[in-house]
Amino acid sequence: MESHLVSLARIPFSVLDLAPIVQGQTAAQAFDNSVRLAQHAEHLGFERFWVAEHHNINGIASSATAVLIGHIAAQTRTIRVGSGGVMLPNHAPLIVAEQFGTLESLFPGRIDLGLGRAPGTDGVTQQALGRSPRSGLDFPDLLEELRGYFRPARSGQPVRAVPGEGLDIPIWLLGSSDFSARLAAGLGLPFSFAGHFSPEGMAAMHLYRQLFKPSATLARPHAMICVPVVAADTHAQAQRLATTQQQKFLSLVRGNRLQLQPPVDDMAALWTEQEEWAVRHRLAAAIVGDAATVEAGLQDLLRRTQADEIMIVGDFHDIRDRLRSYEILAEIKARQV
């Protein structure tokens, strides 16, 4: 659709962060890196900085998502900070409303609430969180309960979110399939697709647009795509740095999650042919290379998805390489003006 082939300069860039723990470092160092990245992204003009909820995963420190959002928001000034996302089946909706009502009250106009329906962990850990595996099936009901707490209080309302009620906190639905795309479209909510680990489901972006119904929240659909990007000054350097994210997904395929590993010169000695296929399949949407390669990849992504916004996740062993990758992305945007 030629009418939607817009310049990257007009597309907001945002950041997804999992507070990754680098091999040999601590969660405290991961949080310092997250703050450093958020401040860098703010300086570069990025739109949002979202933190993803995960539990019982070695190498990911973003389990207490609302706490980390508050920490990052307190050390930035203008960038929107939010969840990408909070896994609603893990929590009572009232707790989520109170937590994000508190965040919005502390940082007015800067908080986003992205919601997912997956547990973000394994079944045993989900039970330890005190939630039923069935909670994901009841996601629409949980969502409606949560949205109710953010509405102005009604006369005689027995349970209220204080703070929370009456606050205008943007709610996004996140998904890796068409379930959340359909639900977001029907409710007139913004939608974010998890292309960083589920590239085969990008048709959900188009389905969301086709089924969208205007609401008091949105008059038109607003879809964001999340993708992994590894940008470096040379193509060869980017390819080498990308072996860190390849090792991360290899450990996921093997069921043995590791902390972020240093890059290697050659992955051939680390994986089997079947494992290589599985990793490359999961990272099929990844954009890796120098500025020209990344720019072309982002333009192709826009053409295929018609995204209104691009959220970028990047796994790097060295925080300096991570910061440089986002600098290159900002430089690409600036050249498009």
From TrEMBL:
Q: Which CDD domains match?
A: Flavin_utilizing_monoxygenases (cd00347)
Per its UniProt record, what InterPro entries does this chain match? Bact_Lucif_Oxidored, CmoO-like, Luciferase-like_dom, Luciferase-like_sf
One Pfam family this sequence matches? Bac_luciferase
Please list the residue ranges annotated as the Luciferase-like domain. Answer: 13-327
Q: Which GO terms describe its molecular function?
A: oxidoreductase activity, acting on paired donors, with incorporation or reduction of molecular oxygen
Gene3D superfamilies, A to Z: Luciferase-like domain (3.20.20.30)
Domain of life, source organism: Bacteria
* GO cellular component entries: cytosol
| UniProt record similarity statement | To bacterial alkanal monooxygenase alpha and beta chains.
- Name of the protein in question: Luciferase-like monooxygenase
Organism name: Corticimicrobacter populi
